[in-house]
Amino acid sequence: MKIEEYTLQTIVEPLLEWFSGHARVLPWRENPSPYRVWVSEIMLQQTRVEAVKPYFERFIQALPDVKALAKCPEEQLLKLWEGLGYYNRVRNMQIAAREIMDNYGGTIPSDYEELLKLKGIGHYTAGAVSSIAYGNAVPAVDGNVLRVISRVAADDRDIMKQSVRSNMEKQLSAIIPKGRAGAFNQALMELGATVCLPKTAPKCDECPWQQLCLARKEEKTAQIPVKSKAAKRRIEEKTVFLIRDGEKIVLRKRPAKGLLAGMYEFPNEEGYYTQKRALAYVKEMGLMPLRIEELTDAVHIFSHVEWHMKGYLIRVEAMEEEKGFIFAETEDFVDNYPMPSAFGAYTQYLNIRQGKERWL
After folding, report:
1. Confidence class for position 293, pLDDT limits 50, 70, 90
2. Among candidates 237, 143, 244, 132, which has minimal Cα distance to 184?
3. Quick check: is 226 in a domain?
4. In terms of domains, do 213 and 241 share one?
5. Inside any domain, residue 223
6. How far is CA 351 from CA 240, 317, 334, 354, in A?
């Protein structure tokens, strides 16, 4: 069945009534200004709500408005984002903030099409900001919305196709209640996040649409939505080196472009090194190793690649600066060197807490 064959208008009132009594209390909902909505929606992409809360509060405290975001030094910006991943998102936010300062007088535009012109803002984020912050009747279709609408209409089209997403946006545009657009879009997201859960876990008995849902009626909630499989991630094997003397640890900065651009990292090399080869690597750096300890293996998953890592903690004699490397004091590392969570399994050996962990 296709969504056009289902009378979508029937879902509106039961959904809004349900949302009025079941909406979660979230920090960005307390004051849904355009800036706060924008920041929260970018953070929430591929990150759970509970995980985002401390990041959001810290970010807003440090950068309370568009102007502050536009002026923020890059390393402070990346440090605030540390642990969320997908660092290009916050870089794009800063580019967009500067565009807003230059072209919109510092005010985030309310118009959906104008929002789409800003760096890093796609259809979903533009719809969320325009509807939630400004009350405009435009759709905001994310994965949760795709799932709940596909199920209620028993729509078995592949939601990974842009044509299906565009069609769903068109159908929802026709039923968004004027004056309640923000509540409607948030209610759809909330239903998908808390009740109409993925795969075989929907809580149908708690759903306001249980009498309207065709997937439930046809016992197809496990099959809908239809979602084509993503390409298999490639695996990269790496050896990570934690090299330190007394209080200093060796770091290096990643290239300005590419994966984790501009972030700091522990020295690492492709392939798995033996202890003998690892010691030789350190000597080639001009350092004198004193002791080596093999660390726990770790895996970090990105969207298109997996890092399978083997690690060593290597104590060396007092270090002098070497070209291409940074010798950071532990306290400076925590505050001034943004490092991706990919290395989180190894920072624990230095008693360093990253991202959300260091704020708890």
Report:
1. very high
2. 132
3. no
4. no
5. no
6. 17, 21, 10, 10
Residues constituting the chain: 360
Asked whether the beta carbons of 286 and 322 are under 8 A apart, the reply is: yes
Q: Where are the alpha helices (DSSP H) in 23-73?
A: 27-30, 34-44, 49-62, 66-71
Q: Which residue has the tokens 């962990």?
A: 357
Residue 138 burial class via C-beta count within 10 angstroms: exposed 0-12, middle 13-18, buried 19 and up: buried
Tell me the pLDDT tens digit for each residue of 177-219.
Answer: 989 999 999 999 999 999 999 977 899 999 999 999 999 999 9
Token digits for 23?
A: 């909406």
**Token pair of 334, please?**
């925590």
Q: 68 versus 327: which is more confidently predicted?
A: 68
What is the Cα 217 distance to its own chain's centre?
Answer: 34
For 223-267, how does the pLDDT look when each residue is reduced to its tens digit (9 = 90+)? 999 988 878 889 999 999 999 887 788 999 888 888 888 889 999
- Among 41, 206, 329, 331, the active-site one is 41
Predicted pLDDT at 337: 85
Which pLDDT score, from 0 to 100, does residue 20 have?
A: 95
Looking at the fold, whether 61 and 118 belong to one and the same domain comes out as yes
Whole-angstrom distance, CA of residue 23 vs CA of residue 9: 21
What residues have CB less than 8 Å from 104, skipping those under 6 apart?
114
Residue 264, domain member (yes or no): yes
Q: Which of 152, 158, 154, 198 is nearest to 175 (CA)?
A: 152
Total domains in the fold of the chain: 2
Q: Which two tokens stand for residue 209?
A: 């649409």
* Whether residues 248 and 334 fall in one domain: yes
Q: 41 an active-site residue? A: yes
